[in-house]
Automatic annotation (TrEMBL):
One of its GO terms (biological process) is trehalose biosynthetic process. Keywords: Hydrolase, Stress response. Belongs to the trehalose phosphatase family. It catalyses: alpha,alpha-trehalose 6-phosphate + H2O = alpha,alpha-trehalose + phosphate. Removes the phosphate from trehalose 6-phosphate to produce free trehalose. Trehalose accumulation in plant may improve abiotic stress tolerance. This is Trehalose 6-phosphate phosphatase. GO terms for molecular function: trehalose-phosphatase activity. CDD domains: HAD_TPP. InterPro entries: HAD-like_sf, HAD-SF_hydro_IIB, HAD_sf, OTSB-like, Trehalose_PPase.
Length: 320
């Protein structure tokens, strides 16, 4: 989602995008406003684990396609973005699910970076918010080939802006600039909140000299990316199309993600009336997703159950 306007509004919205965990109250505590809000939100976006049987009965006879976000979905949010590793257990379930369903990881990070974390072949990767799509070659599933890079002309510009922003933010302790190939991310997580407005100002100021870039926000990050009409939703549509899937096909795309940028994909699924989104969040958020999961450990549980269900429908022995 694109952001504009005052620095104050921008900073407030950065805070809202990664709220602190809400403690659930115990029986002897009075019901709080948060509990009431969470309850009504859960009615609109029920747990995908609680509704697993219903989801699977809708999925019967349909071809499931898995779309997974990386940060906050497959890996827990960490202070240092370079340490956001996927656990071996999560890698194993993603590997297994990919044996049964076409699987793609769609991330804001560069494709190379996500691949270096996930280390799985035979799946699709769409890094840089879907601007760098790669998939297994037909000849060798363990080889990857470029499928689509709509912002290739922007590469020199992104390199240049990463250099400028690294220089501009040098004096702000904790600020880091991450080069995500076709876009870039400025991290606020380790910056004292008093300095957020100054950092946001620096990021925004770049737009004057680079009007072909646009500013978007995520969980304690501001990002600059080419102002082309491309996002995670478009990447999802591109992949479905390249799998030969049309709206009328008996296909069930499932997209799991935690961030504002994943909303573009949730929206596409809602508008197509095909498949559904699952938002990963511990707190109520405005979303186009149909279901919810609280954290990456619940994501792993959901994928595990999906694999088990598939094995059962095929009459295969489950490992458990
Ligand atoms: O689309 P995603 O795979 O969710 O990537 C979105 C951004 O994720 C990373 O930042 C987020 O995770 C970091 C590590 O947990 C955390 O420190 C940061 O505050 C989060 O916003 C990544 O570093 C960014 O480049 C991605 O754009």
């Amino acid at each position: 989602m694109e952001v504009a306007g005052k620095i104050e509004t921008l900073v407030d919205s950065l805070r809202d995008l990664s709220p602190t965990r809400v403690r659930s109250s115990s029986f002897d505590e009075p019901v709080s406003e948060n509990d009431v809000q969470r309850c009504s939100w859960m009615t609109l976006h029920p747990s995908a684990l609680d509704k697993f049987d219903k989801i699977m009965s809708d999925a019967e006879d349909k071809q499931i396609i898995m779309f997974l976000d990386y940060d906050g979905t497959l890996s827990p949010i960490t202070e240092d973005h370079d340490n956001a590793y996927i656990t071996n257990e999560m890698r194993e379930v993603v590997k297994e699910v990919a044996l049964y369903f076409k699987t793609a990881i769609i991330s804001g990070r560069s494709t190379n970076k996500v691949q270096s974390f996930v280390k799985l072949t035979g799946i699709y990767y769409a890094g840089s918010h879907g601007m760098d799509i790669k998939g297994p070659t037909k000849i060798d599933q363990s080889d990857q080939e470029v499928m689509f890079q709509p912002a290739i002309d922007y590469l020199p510009m992104i390199d240049e802006v990463v250099g400028i922003l690294k220089e501009k933010t040098r004096s702000i302790p904790g600020a880091t600039v991450e080069h995500n190939k076709f876009c870039l991310t400025v991290h606020f997580r380790r910056v004292n909140e008093k300095r957020w407005p100054a950092l946001a100002e620096q990021v925004k100021s770049v737009l004057t000299d680079y009007p072909k870039l646009r500013l978007t926000e995520g969980r304690k990050v501001l990002e600059l990316r080419p102002s082309i009409k491309w996002d995670k939703g478009k990447a999802l549509e591109f992949l479905l199309h390249s799998f030969g899937i049309t709206e009328s096909d008996d296909v069930l795309p499932v997209y799991i993600g935690d961030d504002r940028t994943d909303e573009d994909a949730f929206k596409v699924l809602r508008e197509r009336g095909q498949g559904f989104g699952i938002i990963v969040s511990e707190t109520p958020k405005e979303t186009n997703a149909s279901y919810s999961l609280q954290d990456p450990s619940q994501v792993r549980e959901f994928i595990k159950r999906l694999v088990k269900w598939k094995k059962q429908t095929l009459g295969e022995q489950s490992d458990e």
